[in-house]
Amino acid sequence: MRFQVSLFYVGILLIITGSIGAGIILSQSSKSTTSFSLDSLEANYVPVKIKGDGIGYYLISSESYQNNILAKVIDPHGNFLDIRKVTNKVTVDYFHFSHGDQVTLEVTNLSDKPVKITATIGDTRVQEIMFPAILIFGGALVLVFSGYRKLKNYITEQPDENKS
Q1: φ, ψ at 56 (rounded to 5°)
Q2: Is the pTM of this model over 0.85?
Q3: Element (DSSP H or E) covering residue 66
Q4: Could you give the CA distance from residue 59 to residue 118 in angstroms, rounded to a whole number?
Q5: Most Cβ neighbours (<10 Å): which of 3, 5, 133, 142?
Q6: Per-residue pLDDT tens for 7-50?
Q7: Rounded Cα distance, 86 and 70, in Å
Q8: How many CB atoms within 10 Å of residue 137?
Q9: What pLDDT does residue 18 have?
């Protein structure tokens, strides 16, 4: 008995495996989420412990569409890893860190009115997610190749027009 697996199914399997692996890695990453309300010129801090070096992220969302918020990512030595003025409802930004330690997201309300904010800071674990990303990319290439093979021999011709 011979069992044949098509390239289409191999591509789908690679994409599913890579997606599950990426989801597991990202669910185990270190992150911290806090919701708070800030009055005018008030600040709040969201700390997180990170390991090694890599790329971190922060997500800031608020209930209003017009904001004037200052977001700073600070390492334990007081160095700014990232600084950004947030003016929209949802903002995601990334920063590089070169040592494993605690980093802190400082969120300051620069507007005259109070604002309710949800802030998340975490580690992307970019080094560990490379293998699942390669699986997903390889699966997509296999899907494109299998589609090309199917369509390569498919010839479409237009019928001759009736000329009367």
Answers
A1: -110, 170
A2: no
A3: none
A4: 8
A5: 142
A6: 899 999 999 999 999 999 988 888 999 999 999 889 999 999 98
A7: 6
A8: 13
A9: 95
Following CA atoms 55, 60, 66, 67 in sequence, which dihedral angle do they give, to the nearest 10 degrees?
A: -90
Locate the domains of the chain by residue range: 1-29+125-151, 30-124
Residues 6+ apart with CB under 8 A from 129: 22, 25, 26
On the question of pLDDT at 164 being above 70, the answer is no
**Three-point CA angle 85, 88, 90, nearest 5°:** 100
Bridge partners, residue 107, by sequence: 44, 71
Measured CA angle at 83 (ends 70, 76), to 5 deg: 105
Cα–Cα dist 75/120, whole Å = 16
Q: Each residue of 123-148: pLDDT tens digit?
A: 988 888 999 999 999 999 999 999 88
Predicted pLDDT at 108: 93
Task: Report percent pLDDT > 70 for the chain.
Answer: 92
CA distance 148 to 61: 43
